[in-house]
Structure formats: C-alpha cells, structure tokens
Request: fold
Amino acid sequence: MKLILLSCLLASSLFGQSPKSENPKPERWWLPRPAPDLEARKPEITRLIKEGVAAYDDYQLLQADEEAKRGPARDRNAPLQALKDWNEAHDKLLKAQKELKKLDQAIEKTVDAYGICPKGEGTIQNGDIMKGTKVPWQVKFFDQGETIREVKNAKGYLRYIDVPAAYEEDRAITKDDGFTAVRIAAFRAAAKEGDPSSLAGTLYHEAVHYTRLVTRDSTHAGWKTKEEEEDFALDKKLKAAVILGLSADQIKKTERARADYVEPAREIAAGRRKGTLLFLASIQETRNQEQFMRLKRLKDTVEEETGRLKKRIEARGAVEDLRQFAGEACSRSGSGFFGSDVARFKDALEKSRNLELGLEPFSAFKGLKGCPYQVLFSLFARDVSSPDKLAAAVESGRDVARQYFDGAIAKLQEVARKGCAMPTHIAGWEAEEFGKALSLVYADSPYFGVELYPGTSGLSGCPLTMLRRFLSDGSPYSAKKLNAISDEVVARIRMDMVQEVARVACAKPGELTTGEAEVLFHYLDALFSYSPAYFDLAVNELAGCPHAMLRAFGAKRYQTTMERCVGDFNGVSVEIAGPGGQTPGSGDGGGNQGGTDLERARRRIDQARRELGGLR
Reply:
C-alpha cells in the first residue's frame, strides 16, 4: 500500500509555559494549520471514509469465503467448477482489497486538509534498533492482525519491528521507526460521526509521537516512557482541539484518556517510579525475525499456490475446450475447417500442458467415447497445422469411430436375434457385450446424426420388437434382465400368433387348414411351456368365437392330435356359447395357475405394450 511522505516544515506556533507538574516539554511546538477551504473538503473525505469502511467489512467476508473455497480447489482432482468458484472468490477479494485504498486516500486528504505537518524527515534520537536513522513520517491504514515489518536502520542492517493486532477501540499506533498504523476503529468513529475531525485528532496525536521521536532540543531527545509520551501527546491534542474541530464528546474522551497518564508521568519524571519502555527489546526482535520469516514463507506459499491454481484453471479450461472441439468436429459433416479452428485446437493443446502433478493433456480423453475419443486421439497423433490437415485428422478419427459404431449396432442386433431364437438362454458375457455396445451407440449417435435407435434399421418381427424393448428400458443390463425382456417379447408374439389363428378359424368356419392348425398347435404348446398364465391372458383378451375356440383347445390340450385340432377348429366338436361365453369342459384346463400369475402376466404385457406402442 502507498506510504504517505509528508514534507511539512516544523510549524512556528509557540505554546505557553507548561505547568511544573507536567513532564518536560520541548521549547517550541507546532499546531495544525487547516486549509482555508477545509469545510468544502470534508464531504469528499467523509465519503472516502464511509466507502473504505464498507470495503473493509466486505473484505473480511470475502477473505473467509476465499479461504473456504481454496481448500477444495487444492485437490489435484478438483472439478473445474470448484476451481472456477475459488477463482471468482479470489478475484472478488482482490477487488475489495483495492477498495481499501480509499482509507489511505482519506488519511492523505485529512492530513493535507487539516495541516497536520510534523517535520518532513527526522533522525530517530534513541532506541537500540533504529537510533540515528533518518525517516519520514509514514502513516497508512494497517489493520490485518499481528504482523512484522522489515526495515533498514542507519547502518543498513535489517531490523524486524512488530505491529501488534489492534484492540477493538485501538485507533492507531506509532512504532520505533516512526511508522504509524491507523486502525479501522479510527475510521468507524469518523464514519459514525459523519465528519473527519475525529480522524484528524487521531492523526495529530500520532504525528506528535513521531515528532517527539525525531526531535532534539535543550529539554528532550527522543521518546521517554509510554506514560510520559501519552501524557504529552494527549496534552497537545487537547490544546489543538478547537483547531481540529473536535466535538465536546471527543474532547471529554481525550481528557479522560489523559487523566490516566498525568499522575504516572509526574511520578516517573520525579524519579519516584519506573515507566513502561517503548522501544523494542533485542530478544523480542529475535522472535520478530523468526515470525517474519515464517509469515514470509507462508505468504510465498500462498502466492505460489495461487499461481498454480490460476494455471490449473486455464489448463482445465483448455482440456474442456479440447473435448468440446472433438465433439463439434464429430458433428460437422462437409462444412470443413478454418485457420481459426486450427489455432483454437493448438492453443487449447498448449494451455493444457500447464497441468501439473501428472495431469497431462491426455486427461482430455477421460470419459470420452466413440467418435469424440477417436477424433481427439487422431488430432493428438498428427501435426495439425492447416485446415486441410485438421479435416484429414478428423475424418480419420470419424472413420475409426464409425467402424466401432457399426460393430456396436451389429452386436445389438445379434443379441436381439438370440433373444428371439433362444429365450432364457442369454449368457452373462452376452449381456455385458450388449451393455458396452449400447453405451457406444448412445455416445456416438448424436455425432453421426443418426436416429436414437439406429440398431433397429434392417430388422423386423421379433428381433425388431425385442431391440426396441431393450433400447426403451433404462435399467442396468444383466443376463437375467435380458432374458426377462426376451421372454416377455417372445411370449407376446406367441400370444398374437395364437389369437390371429383363432380369428382366422372363426372368420371361415370349417375351412381351417392343416398348416394353420400346425401353427396354432406349435405356438399354443410353446405358450403353455413358457407360462399357462400367458395362455389365459391370450384367451381373456378375446371374445366370442375366438375366445371359445382357444378355451376349448386349452381344455383338451393333452389329448389333442393335429387331426383333432383341425376338427375342433372347423366346428366339429366346439359349441359356441356366445361372446365371452364358456364352452363345455373348458374350466381351468388351460393350466391356469390362479389369478396371481394371470394378473402378473397381464401387467408385464401391458407394460411392454405401453413402451413399444404395439407389436404389429
């Protein structure tokens, strides 16, 4: 932060004689000399104070937020969003930190407007650490907790002076080297009062301390004890109260503060008691140096970490751009590529190499499948320096991906055919292969511009129905799951075939052929073998003649020959009871295992119908 360098000459104001009870004073002293337009300047100073206090409060909240979000961002595997969240918090913190400069501006303008002008530069008169060093009065806002300042003394040696954390009402402190830290409490008081006079009083008080530190005359040379210096500075602040425009309340507070020091200062000056030493002891400076080095290492670590995180964000963003680029390249068809596309790819590739801790550009491949994966692999493997080379690399990747894509569709169709030909016989490895193939099809279909269910192309009948059923089911695939689906599909097809033959027989009484009867006999037998409940469901979905025919057949299933089947369905021994009626001897001869199985079968078939929209 900016250090204020004041070049005011020692003012010529002369105080009257001090009471004998007070500690010795310099022969001459200076008073503030406010600018003629002080009142006109006050609104701007007050605005800076209020905005600075608000910025300080924001800074405290933002600092906590930045620290909270830095933790997750440290993880080398942190998602990009976590890094972006930290980066946003960090940028807000830096912006708020810049706003804190308004407090330094308020100090500078207050010093100038109120004419608070100690000697422009003086030599420190005493103290083991900084004696003999020429220093200006440095004054700035400083309220970031306890810290250490590294300074050079008259001999060029580095010294370490602590600036302790402020108490709640602690408004300012001046240290061994003449540096004054102004606390947030001084600004809060001025903001509450809506006037910079109290801040001017605080600054004048500290300016007195600085002047005493660098002054030598016939009665005084540098600082004495804390009690004597506070008594002196508070006395001078009271004498300047009217000039500074301090309110009656501010004057009373200053008088109460001085009352705590008058008697101790008198006792110390008379040699009747010891005072509090102001200067830094050697042992404390040793501790300060150790603390300074620790804080410096911590600061360097944070800065280094911040730089890494910033690079990681850039690199992770580049990785995401590479992935997006691969997806876009897959979706392009004949539109070609431009020089800007080449530049974008190469720039993203270069930035992605900033990833540290083993996170190489190849992390862009993580989670990619099908066409985007193959295209990105092809781009990495080639020197892409022109639109033509870029197009060639993309097309090469698309060709490879297309082969995998076509192979996946073939695998889906193979499983569908097996499901139709061999219900309940799909093996575990086939289910695993189906899952892989389905995943690849879904991954690639958007990039190749094909329909959602590309594997249905070229299929018909049971395999078509079964593949649609597979593709519409979102459950995890296992051999058991695939077998259940194939069973339901095949059963539904058998039911439809049985029902269709019954309708044909009723449409042309007495003309059922042996071939039709063979089909009916075959599918009825298969349907009974799978589940008698499905037979009952097939029968109950019908009415009238078809219903009666299937019920009659079910009742006589175990005594039926092909010839008997033809005879029955040509009306030789079937008595029609009317729509929905029963034929003699039907009963539960179809092997009905009760309402539970029947209802379960009905629900499964109804679900399949809803999902497939019908099988025909």
